[in-house]
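pasting for ref
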Amino acid sequence: MAGETRSGVTLSGPSGGSRAAGSDAEAARSVAGDGKPRGARDGTRARSLLAATRVALKDAAPDWWPVWLGLAVLFLPTFIDLFGGAWIGEEQGHGPMIFGLALWLIYRKWPQVRALAPATSALGWPVLAAGLLLHLMGRTQHILMFEIGAILLVMTAVLLVKRGARALRVLWFPFFFMLFMVPLPSEFVAAVTMPMKMAVSWATEQILFAAGYPVARSGVILQIGQYQLLVADACAGLQTLLTLEALGLFYLNLMRHPSALRNVGLAILIIPISFSANVVRVIVLTLVTYYLGDAAGQGFLHGFAGMVLFLTALALILAVDSSLQWIVRRRAAQSGQTRERGA
């Protein structure tokens, strides 16, 4: 009778008995260590991590609560105005999403910041003064760009004073990411948005006409059947492009691709992806109006078309990223074959 030794357990008998004993060995290995099943160990580890996080927050509270209190007193009126005005509109509606994602990125990187040696940077004080001055100008003169920009400057100053320049290097991407929530001057936005709206209107007209719809265009006004639609800034403007660019960069930051070709290529291709997603959105709104009437096009389905925009952009980003990944792998395989032939 054949015998086999595996992990100190002698297995003998026919093949079926060997497999059964092997599965018992696998089960024994899954309970190795502290005598608990693997799932129980994962649950214990998660609870330990949560407890450690609570302890760390409790320990940091005496050091940070004056900062949180000062930031709340300074910026709470600004956030109330934003959530009651600009951030519930279409043009600046991406603001809370950008800010929330940036805070999540900071939270995700915060253990690395805590691991750094305690330090401070003298640069933080002039940055803080500039942020407070910008906030004062924005609040008194009702300049939204200054108010939101002051949030970014003051947060940067607090990090420099409390944790130093090395902490800012760790968190550089979340702070760079927050730049996308700062509105640009309206004159610049209008100058750049008009050519974009013209291009989106033209592309929509050509696609619908080729599909057999009775559509015509005059500038940025589309005529389909008995309805006229004005392609607004929110449907094909610079802010939409910047929002989609921000989401693309956020996606790249999460994926952490080692290939420069893949990173740079996808960042550049966000621009045509944004244009294509805007065209899809305008086409959807046009067809909704054509089939369901003007009330449907301007009501709930108008907001739903905004979701279509971002879902289309996300699908295109994933498709382009997969294509770039295939190109990178193919180049790597060809390079490996060339090296093998040379050897």
